[in-house]
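Heterogeneous nuclear ribonucleoprotein u
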Amino acid sequence: MKNFKGFFRIAAVIQPDDPELERRSKKRTQEDGKVVPESAVLEMKSNFSLPEDRDNLFDRIDFVELPKDVVLQLVRQYNQEGKSKPRQDGGAGRFDNKKSG
């Protein structure tokens, strides 16, 4: 974020509710033919986080679609879903700690 020093930085959190998210996912699949595997969705859910005031990265954080309290609850739910469901491929996620060798 150092490239934006001197700018007024705004984070826009765009988080739809579950029915709207599902509708958008289906639309994307129909229009583009892109399918996101469930294992990838679960990994994203387990790692999903929001910008926080204490991070001092943004001057303002706007919650565009849903109110902040609803989004916070959804993120907690998504994190729990992503961590509690076993991966079907049995492998480690791409963000899990790995040693290269």
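thats it. The radius of gyration is 16 Å. The helical segments are 18-32, 38-47, 68-84. bye
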